[in-house]
Specification:
Blueprint (H helix, E strand, L loop, with lengths): L5 E2 L6 E7 L11 E9 L5 E5 L6 E4 L7 H7 L7 E6 L21 E11 L10 H20 L3 H13 L6 H20 L3 H13 L4 H17 L3 H14 L4 H30 L5 H4 L19 H52 L1
Antiparallel strand pairs: 1-2, 2-6, 3-4, 3-5, 3-7, 6-7
Helix pairs in contact: 2-3, 2-4, 3-4, 4-5, 4-6, 5-6, 6-7, 7-8
């Protein structure tokens, strides 16, 4: 229902008459508004309009993007409200007018204005209290998760980092939010193949010592990154810790089995390599200890020099010869004794035969 015009400012420079009631909050300085409007002169000439409901005009209060009268009027309107405005030159285009829009100097303006919706201005981080920062971190986490679901991991990582910068609460709720964002960053880094960063974020989440479910996730994601950089022993330790928290978790059990198999294969391969190394000659001994070559110096006539080794060899040979001769003599004597004994036996046998014949 239409109402009478009311002054929005003391000097009467901006008046409004409500054509359609709105509801909800009223925008403030800095709010971003979506509006529809149509401006006319006193003679009914339309000099400006934006009535496309599909693409409403975006107007920020306090920036004087159109005229001062709009800033004043919008700060009195609710969402969905439609008004008629009467604006004097001081709050319109003033003494200069607007040649582009064909607005003459010192023109009075009439507008139909509708507020479609608005968003309150965002406070800067330093203007927020701890609770407001906590809420901003929650909002940014939601945006980051939306980007992650679209597999836009780089954008998600960027948003999560901003969200983390707003985590200032040291309460249980604050620590859980911070751990949640760090775990999200860990998986983003993993998808971007930034495995060391993935491990670091998982470690930071563990340090917060929050609930068991977050601890389980941190250990699991840390293990996955460790597998990628071939730190299998570390991964095994992480998965065993995760298994202690939840021994029924099928994903943890599966990865635990896989890491054990990878470790077994790695150890077998290592054993095979060392075995081959020990079987092979690692160096050529002849290069380290070359064969000794006997070099005899030529003896000059009348030289008194001699090789002491040669003397030892001569003495050795002489001794050997003597030993050989003695052995030969002994063998000859043994043979003579045996021959004499044989002859004596033969003689005795002959004598026995003769005695036997005589007896017969």
């Amino acid at each position: 229902m239409e109402t009478e015009f009311i002054n929005l400012i003391e000097d009467g420079g901006v008046k409004k008459r409500i054509l359609q009631e709105g509801q909800g909050e009223i925008p403030i300085d800095g709010s971003r508004c979506k509006i529809l409007y149509k401006g006319t002169l006193d003679d009914g000439t339309v000099f400006d309009s934006q009535l496309d409901t599909e693409r409403p005009y975006k107007f920020r209060i306090g920036k004087e993007e159109l005229i001062k009268g709009f800033d004043i009027a919008l700060k009195s309107m609710k969402v969905g409200e439609k008004v008629e405005l009467k604006i004097t030159p001081n709050y319109g285009y003033g003494d200069d007018g607007d040649s582009y829009k064909n607005v003459p100097k010192n023109a009075n303006l009439t507008y139909e204005l509708e507020l479609i919706n608005f968003k309150e201005p965002k406070k800067r981080k330093w203007e927020m209290n701890s609770e407001e920062k906590h809420q901003e971190a929650l909002n940014k986490r939601i945006k980051g998760t939306a980007a992650f679901k679209l597999q836009n991991y780089k954008e998600a990582q960027k948003i999560y980092k901003k969200a983390l910068s707003y985590c200032v609460l040291t309460t249980e709720e604050g620590n859980e939010l911070k751990a949640s964002i760090q775990l999200n960053l860990s998986i983003c880094c993993y998808q971007l193949e930034e495995y060391k960063d993935s491990i670091d974020y998982a470690k930071k989440a563990l340090e917060l010592n929050t609930n068991q479910q977050q601890k389980l996730k941190a250990l699991y994601r840390k293990a996955l990154a460790n597998i990628k950089i071939a730190e299998l022993e570390e991964a095994l330790t992480d998965l065993r810790e995760a298994f202690k928290i939840d021994s029924t978790n099928s994903v943890v059990i599966q990865e635990l089995s896989r890491v054990k198999q990878l470790l077994k294969e790695a150890r077998m391969k290592e054993k095979e390599i060392y075995s081959k190394l020990f079987q092979q000659k690692l160096y050529d001994e002849s290069e380290i200890e070359p064969n000794k070559i006997e070099i005899k110096e030529a003896k000059s006539e009348g030289s008194s020099c001699c090789d002491p080794n040669e003397k030892i060899e001569e003495e050795t040979q002489t001794k050997t010869t003597v030993e050989n001769k003695d052995g030969q003599l002994q063998e000859e004597k043994i043979e003579e004794r045996e021959q004499i004994k044989i002859e004596e036996n033969n003689q005795n046998n002959t004598k026995i035969v003769e005695e036997t014949v005589t007896s017969v």
